[in-house]
Every structure is written in C-alpha cells, then in structure tokens.
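Write out this protein's structure.
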Amino acid sequence: MNVLQLLDPVSLAIVFGGTLAATLLRCGWRDTRTALIALAQLPNRPFDSARVRAELAAQVREIEEDGILRAEPHSFGDGEFDDLSDALIRHRSIKALHDEHARHSSRRRTAAETATRVLGEAAELAPVLGLVGTLVALGGFSAAAGGDYARSIGTAVVTTLYGLVLANFVFGPLAGAIARRARAEESEREALIAWLAATVERAIPSAPPPRDADTDAKAAA
C-alpha cells in the first residue's frame, strides 16, 4: 500500500477546514478563542509547584520575622499567587486567601471546561465533515469519465478516513490533554494553598479574647 495515496490536500481542506468552521459556528468565537488559548499553552511547562512553594516560603519567613503588618507583597510570576500575596497582606486574613484562591480556581476551571467542550464538539463534527467530503466525491461520479471513477472513489474513502483520524487522534486527545493538565494543576495549587494557609495561620497572631464587662469593673474598683 502506498501511503502517499492517502495524502489528498483537497479532502483534508474539506474535512479540517469544514470542521473548524462548523465548530466556530456552533460554539461561538469567545469559546473557540478560549480553546485556542488552552491549546497554545499545552507546549508550555506545567505549573511548577516546587518553585512557587520555595518563593512562598520566603514570604512566610518575612511574615514570621517582621510580622504581618510590616510584610510586603511578593511577586511570584504567577497571577494567582501574586494576588494571594497582595490579599493576604492587605486584609491580614486567611479567609481572604481562600476567597482569592476560589476566584482564580473558578476562572481556571471554567476555561478548561470550555476548551474541553469546544474540542469535544470538533471531535463530534469531524466525522460528519468526513461524510460530507465523501458525498461531494461521490457526487462527482456523474461528471467522471474513464479513470476518474477510481479517483472519485479514492477521494470518498480518504475524506471519511480524515474525519475519523481528526476526531479520534487529534481533537479528542487534545481535549483529554487539556482536562488532565487542568486537574493536575488544580490539585497542586490546592495542596499549596492548604500548606500556605496552615503556615501563615501560625505566623499571624490571634486576636485577644473578648474581655468580660464584670471583670473590667472589678479591676477598675
């Protein structure tokens, strides 16, 4: 079997281009753009929890040595932890830490779910566009002459193949890769937040207990 016979630029343009156009029409530009951003981030290095934890340790040491009132926010090169440091210093509260993390976590989860859904739609549409290419090729039978019949049949088969390959070996796996990466990153961030909250809680002095009015009166007498 000659593998070069499977290379048909026209069929690929019909299936791939048609799938992209149909996905854009079905999902809208905003969600499609979210998926493209997620795809562009896949080759980048995953979230480095060890590096961020080391930098967070420096922030915690500063709080322990100078106190929460004199500590300054640090920049970690990570949008979430930059905001967490700022919220912690500004509000001097563990609750502010968790609230800020929840906001970022919700935004990341929504983006990952949107990207996964868009790629899932593309995986669903690719075989349909493969069938469209097949019908277009078969429709050329009426105008085909001589050896062109074989070419039309070959194009019909190849477009179906392209649709299945794009669905099961491109769009589907990419959707799975984005979902797995999002889950792994979220798990690492949750562990870091739990460690940071427990560490900072020990460094922040607790508020004094409320004083009893009778006790104050007796002390004044």
